[in-house]
Every structure is written in C-alpha cells, then in structure tokens.
Amino acid sequence: MNQRRLFGGMALGMLGALMLSACQARQEMLSAPVVGYNHTSAAINRFSVNGASGPNLGAYEGGGTEVCCGVLPRHWRSGTKAVVAWQKDPHPYAYGEWKEKPFSDAWNDRMKEHKQHYSRHRAVVDIPQYGETVCALQVHFLPCDQVRVSTTCYTPGNPKYPDQAYFETREATTCPAL
C-alpha cells in the first residue's frame, strides 16, 4: 500500500514538473496565423513556414485566408530565420485549354502528366525584427523563386504596410542562376 502511495506521489510530482516546464516553454514562443501573397504567374499549391501550413495561392493572389498557426520566439534575436517550403505549378490554368472531358480517364491521365511539372522549393530567410506583438507570419512569393517573410500587423491596404514594394514587382523573363 505504501509503495502505491509513493509511486502515485512520484508520478504526480513528475507530471506537475512536466506541466510547469511545458508552460515555461510556451511562454518562450508566440503563435501567429500564416498568410501568403503570391506575386507570380505560377500557383503555389501548398506552402509551410517552419512547418506550419499556409493556404493555397493562385497566380497573383493572396491575403484574406489565414491558417493557424506558425510559431516564433517570443523575443526576436538577430539571426531569427524562417524555413519556407512550397510546391509550385508553373501553368496553373493549363487544364482550361484541354479538350478532354473534365475528370474523364483521359483528363485524369493528362493531369498526372501536368503534375510532373510541379516543382518543390525550400528557402531559409531572415525574419525582420518584431516587437511583443506578432499579428501574422506573412509570406511573399516573389519572381525567380524568391521568398520573404514579415510579421507586420499592417495589411497591404494600410500606408504603413512595410512590404508594399512587393506588389509593384514584375516577373522577369529570365531569372539569374542561383
């Protein structure tokens, strides 16, 4: 009987210590919705920021849809980075020109072939300095497979939005070799 109490007390103590450390770890991190902006003619079929998924983005689309949640350190430090991974469809509207009946066997075969041209990308990018409040992890997909991340609380319609220049970006006809 005493062994059960001792074991129960130890288990309860270990559980309490585990919960306390989890609370402390949570206090070191911030969560933020993930939103994307696609400044290219390709579709972004899927993307993630530090493992947190974002919404699909059509060509030249973005904003509006937020997916929860990305995680950042509570306090920004020099060298804070984000790992962005994405899948891109370079010809997102090609199926509109196909003569095959949609979702027929022939159309499905053609779609399988189309998907062979999807490309996968990964970039490690700097996260600009942020304060105590992070409203969203905003990911900008730029021409030539470039990507930028910001944490601003402003939206593109606000004059204080720091990433407005990305909306003026034009696609290059050729991209420099990386």
What does this structure look like?
This protein has 178 residues and is an alpha+beta fold. It has one domain (30-168). 21% of the residues lie in helices and 31% in strands. The protein has 2 helices and 8 strands, in the order H-E-E-E-E-E-H-E-E-E. The protein has helices spanning 2-27, 105-115; strands at 29-38, 43-49, 52-54, 67-73, 81-89, 119-126, 137-142, 146-150. Strands 4-1-7-8 form a 4-stranded mixed sheet. It has a 4-stranded antiparallel sheet with strand order 3-2-5-6, with no helix packed on it. It is elongated and about 55 Å long. The model is unreliable at 1-26 (pLDDT under 50).
- Described by its quaternary structure, the protein is single chain
Number of E-type strands = 8
**Helix-residue proportion:** 10-25%
Count of runs of 4 or more consecutive helical residues: 2
Q: Uncertain regions: pLDDT < 50 for 5+ in a row?
A: 1-26
User: Which structural class matches the secondary elements?
Assistant: alpha+beta
In total, the number of domains comes to: 1
Question: What is the typical, i.e. mean, pLDDT?
Answer: 81
In the sheet with the most strands, the strands line up as: 4-1-7-8
Shape: elongated
Distance between the termini: 69 Å
Strand content: 25-35%
Q: What radius of gyration results from the CA coordinates?
A: 22 Å
* Helix/strand order, N-terminal first: HEEEEEHEEE
* Biggest β-sheet strands, sense, barrel: 4 strands, mixed
